[in-house]
Amino acid sequence: MVERRAFGILGMALVLLAALASACRGSDTGSGRDAADGRDLMQITFRVVATEKTLPADFFSIAPKDVLIRVATGQDKLQELWSYFGLQVQVPSVRWDREVILLLGTGESSTCPFRVGEITFDGASGRLRIRLDRPTGPGMCTADFSPRTFVLALPRNLMDGGWREMQVLGVHGEPVVPLELP
Question: Which of 30, 62, 69, 142 is the most buried (most CB within 10 A)?
Answer without folding.
Answer: 69
